Amino acid sequence: MNSIWELETFYRNRNVIIIGSGFTGLWTAISIKEKYPEKSVLIIERNSIPLGASTRNAGFACFGSLTEVIADSQKMGWDKTLELVEMRFRGLQKIQNYFHRSDIDFELSGGFEILDSDHSLGMMDEVNEKLKSITGIPETYFLNQNKIKEFGLNKCDFLIENPCEGSLHSGKLLQKLLEKSQELKIEFLFGMEVKSVVEHDNDIEVHLPKGVSIKGEKLIYCTNAFSTEFLKEEEIIPARGQIILTEPIEGLRLKGTFHYEEGFYYFRNVGNRVLLGGGRNKDFKTEETTLLATTGFLQNHLEKFLKEIILPDQDFIIALRWSGIMAMGAEKTPIVKKISTRQFCAVRLSGMGVALAPEIGEVMSSMVYGQD
Ligand SMILES: Cc1cc2nc3c(=O)[nH]c(=O)nc-3n(C[C@H](O)[C@H](O)[C@H](O)COP(=O)(O)OP(=O)(O)OC[C@H]3O[C@@H](n4cnc5c(N)ncnc54)[C@H](O)[C@@H]3O)c2cc1C
């Protein structure tokens, strides 16, 4: 049994309960508190730190590459594709408005895409025309062949540059969001896994371990790839992403964020180290998992890619290897919606949640209390 002190403080009723303290949960809580400061907001997180995608990603302040935008438009049409691009663009602006760049290592060094055929170049003008109203730039994507040599890249026939993309330190951004949350008096319970949720006529109740339960008016799932138990109707496919990071490399020439094969490979410099992730398309079925682990097959594949394409003339030592879990679906649009009178969800942020989450927080806060 809990004490009166616990029941009247930590486990008391709240207006809003959010499950998940990754980027989506934090930005959503912040948006709600900024718009409705009188509402109490509690975030429940099962791990001692956010653990899924937000602390395990590549730290691209991700706008998206040319071939990715083309592939998205072919899968889901231009309207949805442009809506998503605009959301990312505005999300990146919001991050820069909220935090000093130096506090989160935000660098606008440009995004680059390696192409080994001129197939997509023919569509570049059309894509630029469509993106102009979002970025305000006539050429969001342009060919920059000079940089192939400057960066020391191998097997790169064409290099497309995009000045709207940058990189950041995901850990520092999360810590800043936590600081902002404290300022706004958002409350947290870390290390508590939500086991089940029961919606009643007058409230919603979440069940936690050791017989603890907490009631709220509204509940928001920000559980991304870990949502299938709660959101059985939705198409949420877990997608593990594996990463390697080198030790510092003297005289490293690579600078910026880089995409290859429609974003299936991504790499960047972290100071004078190289971070490389991806290759999921080489072993799709194994990587459809929520298990945080690395595999020999993909780790070797990534090392080979690093040696052949990124660092053909330099020796390197791998310092760290890790994995994180994304959430995917047939199309890239996140699932942001009301699912019952008191339950909402903001999940399936694909590989672009750093940029999408700030805007999703805005949408969710309007959805939860907008019509009251
Ligand atoms: C390898 C990799 C590289 C990536 N690179 C980039 C990139 O460079 N740029 C970019 O924009 N995006 C990138 N992404 C995607 C981005 O990281 C995600 O879209 C984003 O972090 C999703 O945030 P989230 O808060 O929705 O999910 P998560 O960060 O996964 O947070 C969900 C949280 O819910 C918690 N949770 C789950 N179930 C429960 C429960 N029952 N009770 C309590 N808590 C629970 C989890 O512990 C977790 O902390 C990458 C992702 C991966 C995996």
Automatic annotation (TrEMBL):
Pfam families: DAO. One of its GO terms (molecular function) is oxidoreductase activity. It is an enzyme of class 1 (oxidoreductase). SUPFAM superfamilies: FAD/NAD(P)-binding domain. It comes from the Bacteria. Keywords: Oxidoreductase. Residues 16-366 form the FAD dependent oxidoreductase domain. One of its GO terms (cellular component) is cytoplasm. Its EC number is 1.4.3.-. PANTHER family: FAD DEPENDENT OXIDOREDUCTASE DOMAIN-CONTAINING PROTEIN (PTHR13847:SF281), SARCOSINE DEHYDROGENASE-RELATED (PTHR13847). This is Gamma-glutamylputrescine oxidoreductase.
